[in-house]
């Protein structure tokens, strides 16, 4: 019994001295932003070249970079020609995504129908955006439209930052759908739509 009592006293003392050693934190003075640290682009002793910020090792790839065939990433073949067929499957969902991104990203200049009859275009005196319904642009391979969307063309900026790879191909697919919508022949419509057109359009 006595032994246990001594033991308890010792444990109690240890707990007291531990508390005494604690340095109270002043959350104003000890914020991480105010603590001693090395800063980017400043010298630092941690590495042999004395720099804090180390260049990434050769061949480092950003985590979000899509790696794959150039037909998919650049819209060109190994021989350097624009691809003329889509490198990803075209689904209704993809075209819907394309519609959303086109209307959000491109339509301010090129218009909802791609005719480029817009307020913005009318104010562009230098070189207004061309109609995407123009025969020459309709004749462009999809790889070219993808390149324009990704890297820009002349006065038009690229949209690789705003749209990821899938969204850019979706926009190209939607541009094709828009072009078809304004240039389709009646005989190209499915029979039920052809019927509806005949009954509704005088
Ligand atoms: C800020 C206005 C603006 C926006 C937004 C814009 N464009 Fe353009 N676009 C232009 C202009 C201006 C040109 C003509 C550039 C030139 O000739 O220098 C052009 C040209 C083009 C061409 C023709 C290029 C060729 O090969 O001749 C295509 C295709 C095109 N745009 C597609 C798009 C798509 C797709 C988007 C959306 C991702 C988009 N544009 C967004 C202004 C815009």
TrEMBL record:
Limits of the Cytochrome c domain: 93-179
GO MF: electron transfer activity; heme binding; metal ion binding
Domain of life: Bacteria
Ranges in coiled-coil conformation: none
Keywords assigned by UniProt, alphabetized: Heme, Iron, Metal-binding
One Pfam entry name: Cytochrome_CBB3
The name this protein goes by in its record: ABC-type Fe3+ transport system protein
Species, as recorded: Vulgatibacter incomptus
Lineage of the species this protein comes from: Bacteria, Pseudomonadati, Myxococcota, Myxococcia, Myxococcales
């Amino acid at each position: 019994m006595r032994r246990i009592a001594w033991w308890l006293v010792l444990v109690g003392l240890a707990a007291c001295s531990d508390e005494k050693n604690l340095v109270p934190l002043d959350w104003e003075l000890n914020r991480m932003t105010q603590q001693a640290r090395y800063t980017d682009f400043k010298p630092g002793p941690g590495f042999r070249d004395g720099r804090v910020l180390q260049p990434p090792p050769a061949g480092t790839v950003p985590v979000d970079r899509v790696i794959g065939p150039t037909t998919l990433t650049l819209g060109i073949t190994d021989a350097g020609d624009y691809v003329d067929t889509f490198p990803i499957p075209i689904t209704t969902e993809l075209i819907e995504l394309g519609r959303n991104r086109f209307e959000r990203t491109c339509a301010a200049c090129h218009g909802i129908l791609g005719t480029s009859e817009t307020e913005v275009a009318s104010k562009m005196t230098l070189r207004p955006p061309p109609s995407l319904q123009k025969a020459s642009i309709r004749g462009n391979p999809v790889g070219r439209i993808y390149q324009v969307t990704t890297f820009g063309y002349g006065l038009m900026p690229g949209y690789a930052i705003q749209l990821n790879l899938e969204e850019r191909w979706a926009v190209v697919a939607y541009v094709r759908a828009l072009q078809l919508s304004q240039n389709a022949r009646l005989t190209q419509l499915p029979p039920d739509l052809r019927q509806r057109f005949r009954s509704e359009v005088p």
